[in-house]
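Obj.: predict assembly geometry.
Materials: sequence records (below).
Method: joint structure prediction, all chains together.
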Amino acid sequence: MNEQNKGNQQEESRGFNLDGASEFFGRIAGSESAKKLGTGRKMVAAIQEEAREREEEAKKEKHGRRVYLECTDVVKQYKQYDSVVTAVNRATFSVLENEFVAIIGASGSGKSTLLHLCAGLDRPNAGTIRVGGHVITNLDADALGRFRGENIGMIFQNHNLLPQFTAMENILIPTLMCSKPGSEYEGTFRQLISSLRIADRLHHLPSELSGGQQQRVAIARALINSPRVVFADEPTGNLDRANADEVLELLLHTREALGQTLIMVTHDMSIAERADRIFRMENGVLSLMKS
Ligand SMILES: Nc1ncnc2c1ncn2[C@@H]1O[C@H](COP(=O)(O)OP(=O)(O)OP(=O)(O)O)[C@@H](O)[C@H]1O
Ligand SMILES: [Mg+2]
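Observations (raw structure tokens):
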């Protein structure tokens, strides 16, 4: 028996053989964890951890698209004196990357509250919210602010424009949260003000704009950073049919161009019907209405 065979026999008697071992070690030596940790038990543990994470990620894929937003048992209550309003009651749902989801429901049913929680603008009393792989409910205020600045666009129901800043300044405020140089926003800025027809109102304060113009400025502000996800709270609420249709086309076009995820609260069923799925909110309880 030659030396090689002797070795193989010894390995077999210990419960494994080394056929294919060089390929295996070559593969694991090239893994990111192995490069960081060197060899040994630590390396094996790290590789197992990598594989487990990959499995978790793979589980999150549906029909080849990854889950971008995931809410699990999310609860938000408002306490006033001795009464408690449960605005969001154990919401559990997920939204895929590049999906367009509409949320409908009666006034006061909890739609805006849910959107604010998902966008990291408010914290739930219970439950977890994962956005783009980050559990935002665990992030501290600084990390959450940075994450929001780079990934989330929010169109508020009541616009929330800062009254002391002009339309142009309001649109550019989110760019201060990102590390990219100002010149990189020029193309997007020009495109947005032209599509939203606000080029001639840029140097006016919000109080000098009509409701519809304020809404369009708020939409430009939400899109200026080319965010990964856009939360839109009745973005066409103040607009006439023609303007509402134009805004919807802009949001859908941007979503297509950037692969964005779009989550929109709307009372307009003709808009909701264009979504991939429609959820209904009723007394804080979210349910799937149409998929
Ligand atoms: N800051 C707050 N303090 C106390 N209660 C609140 C607060 N914000 C919202 N609520 C209550 O939570 C419930 C849900 O409000 P929310 O604004 O989410 O409803 P909505 O579905 O967006 O309604 P609308 O269609 O009118 O915009 C309502 O009963 C509301 O009064
Ligand atoms: Mg609302």
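Conclusions so far: Confidence is low (pLDDT under 50) at residues 7-18.
To do: check interface contacts against the pulldown list.
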